[in-house]
Amino acid sequence: MTFAIPAPFVPSLPVAGDDMRFPIRRIYCIGRNYADHAKEMGAAVERTQPMFFMKPADAIVADDGDIAYPTATADLHHEVEMIVALARGGHDIPREHALDCVFGYGVGLDLTRRDLQAAAKAKGHPWDVAKGFDASAPASALRRVADIGHPRHARISLEVNGELRQQADIAEMIFDVAAIIHELSRLWALAPGDLVYTGTPAGVAALQRGDHVVASLDGIARLEGRIV
Q1: Which InterPro entries match (predicted)?
Q2: Residue range 101-111, pLDDT digits in tens
Q3: Could you write out the three-class secondary structure of the chain?
Q4: Bridge-partner residues for 49, per DSSP?
Q5: β pairing state of 51-55 and 80-86
Q6: In 3D, which of 85, 79, 121 has the Cα closest to residue 194?
Q7: Kindly report the CA angle at 154 between 11 and 180, in degrees rounded to 5?
Q8: Nearest-angstrom CA–CA distance, 52 and 29
C-alpha cells in the first residue's frame, strides 16, 4: 500500500523485562472513579454509570521523557492513575471474561488543563480541550499479566518534588478493572492496543515548570518525569 503522505508514527510503551514495545491504538479514561476525588471536585459519587472520555494516542509521553507544559492554561493539574493495557477486545465483553483481555498494567498521569475544564463545565461543553492535549498522558513501562497477575490491592501514589500529593489503594476504585472493560465495550469496540486510565484518588493539584514528578503503583510500575 502506498500512502499519500508519510504514515503517522505509532505511539508505544516499553514492556518491562523485554525489548518489545506495546503499540497504542486508543486511550480511554474514566472520571470520578474514587469517591474522595469526586467529592473534592464537587461532584456526586456515581456508582451506577461510569463517566468516560478519551485522549489521543499520541498524547502519550513514554520512557520517562520530559513533559511539556501545555499552551492555553495557567492551571495544569496532575491526576495519577493505574493504566490497563489490552491485548484483546470486542463488543459487549461479559464482566466475567473482561480480565482475559488484559495484557498488562502500568501507572500514568491524566494531566488536565483545570481552568479550561472549569470553563467547559460552566457552559455545559465537552472537556476535550481540557483533557486531550499534547503530552497529556505520561505513562510508565507496562508489566505483563503473565508476570504479575491481576492486582487487586496496590498502593498508587504521586510525589511532586519529593512531597506526597496523592495516595490510595486501587481497591478503593468505584468501578474495578473488569467493570470498566465491560462498560467500555458496551460503548465502543475495544481492540488490542487500547489503554485504559482507571481514575485518580483525591489530592489533585497544580504543577509548574521545573516540577519533578514520581508516580508509583507499588510493586508494579514507576513513572518519573519533569515538567518543562
Answers
A1: Fumarylacetoacetase-like_C, Fumarylacetoacetase_C_sf
A2: 999 999 999 99
A3: CCCCCCCCCCCEEEECCCCCEEECCCEEEEECCCHHHHHHCCCCCCCCCCEEEEECHHHEECCCCCECCCCCCCCEECCEEEEEEECCCECCCCHHHHHHHEEEEEEEECCEEHHHHHHHHHHCCCCHHHHCCCCCEEECCEEEHHHHCCCCCCEEEEEECCEEEEEEEHHHCCCCHHHHHHHHHHHCCECCCCEEECCCCCCCCECCCCCEEEEEECCCEEEEEEEC
A4: none
A5: unpaired
A6: 85
A7: 55
A8: 6
Residue pointed to by grid coordinates 493495557: 85
Q: Which domains does the chain have, with CATH numbers?
A: 22-227 (3.90.850.10)
Please give the Cα distance from 48 to 97 (Å, whole number): 20
pTM of the predicted protein model? 0.97
Asked if the model's pLDDT at residue 45 lies above 80, the reply is no
What distance in Å separates the CA atoms of residue 125 and residue 106, rounded to the nearest whole number? 31
CA 169, 110, 35, 201 dihedral sign is positive
Task: Work out the average pLDDT over 35-59.
Answer: 85
Question: Do the Cβ atoms of 226 and 67 come closer than 8 Å?
Answer: yes
Tens of pLDDT, residue by residue over 138-193, are: 999 999 999 999 999 999 999 999 999 999 999 999 999 999 999 999 999 999 99
Predicted local confidence at residue 185, as pLDDT:
98
Residue 48: pLDDT over 90: no
CA distances to 50, 57, 77 from 186, rounded to whole Å, are 12, 21, 30
